[in-house]
Amino acid sequence: MYSYNKLLKDKVAIVTGSTRGLGKGMAVALAEAGADVVITGRTEEALNEVSQEVREKGVEAFPVKLDVTDPVSIQNMVDKVVDKFSRIDILVNNAGTIVRKPAVEVTLEEWERVINTILRGAFLCSQKVAKVMIEKKIKGKIINIGSETSRFGISGIIAYVAAKGGIAQLTRGLALEWAEYNICVNCIAPGYFKTAQTMPLFSDEEWVKWVRKRIPMGREGNADKDLNGTVVFLSSDASDYITGQIIFVDGGLSSSLF
Ligand code: NDP
Predict the structure, then answer these.
(1) Structurally, how many domains does the chain consist of?
(2) Predicted confidence (pLDDT) per residue in 57-79, tens digit
(3) Cα 167 to ligand 1 centre (Å)
(4) Three-state secondary structure readout of the chain
(5) Is residue 41 part of a domain?
């Protein structure tokens, strides 16, 4: 167990989609590092449960219902956070969804749901939050959650691949635009972690054996642990001169051709 020594004390962080999985893990990590954390998602019960866990770290947790596919919901969330804390220092664009089927069978509704959740959602949250950071002259940190598909193709999940590829470019484009305001925009690209999103994969034993062989470190990521250091670092003053970067946290998977 390592300690971040309250690196993020007095900072306010929003994590989209923090009701479970990687978002929850990162929300708790930011809280352990001393940040007050805004817990968001569409499931009210889970919002309250995760908020309770965050409060146990000795910081404030603020549960706010959010649907990132709805621009009005995003603006309401940002307004509530500003009303409560008068500042936003960190935004983690984590909310995501996936549709697993051949490209020729993907419906327009499925395509739009995935793109609007991952890519349009991350853009609109970043836009609304950056406006607050710029107006209040806050040195901000925006962290987009990408994927191996921010660099590589994977078949059978075309809308997701397109959305996560877009996340890499959104990261670079916004980093350039907002550098003059001291807002750093970076991307964490996780490898394979066992969560609700990847349950269809991890419930197939043959696939698990195959993927563990493919990952140089021989194991999948742990949602409660393996993104913690990177998200805290990119949220902290220790990364003030890093912007526009995609950091793969994947046990070496993206460095391996076979
Ligand atoms: P989960 O399905 O476990 O969690 C997804 C989270 O996003 C939930 O908290 C969910 O909350 C929230 N969410 C989904 N849709 C919306 C929406 N419209 N508005 C607001 N919140 C929403 O997935 P993971 O934890 O695995 O994934 C988190 C992120 O990490 C995603 O962007 C995913 O693509 C990415 N990722 C995951 C990997 C993995 O191996 N698991 C690998 C690489 C990237 P609720 O349902 O309450 O709204």
Answers:
(1) 1
(2) 999 999 999 999 999 999 999 99
(3) 14
(4) CCCCCCCCCCCEEEECCCCCHHHHHHHHHHHHCCCEEEEEECCHHHHHHHHHHHHCCCCCEEEEECCCCCHHHHHHHHHHHHHHHCCCCEEEECCCCCCCCCHHHCCHHHHHHHHHHHHHHHHHHHHHHHHHHHHCCCCCEEEEECCHHHCCCCCCCHHHHHHHHHHHHHHHHHHHHHHHHCCEEEEEEECCECCCCCHHHHCCHHHHHHHHHHCCCCCCECCCCCCHHHHHHHHCHHHCCCCCCEEEECCCHHHCCC
(5) yes
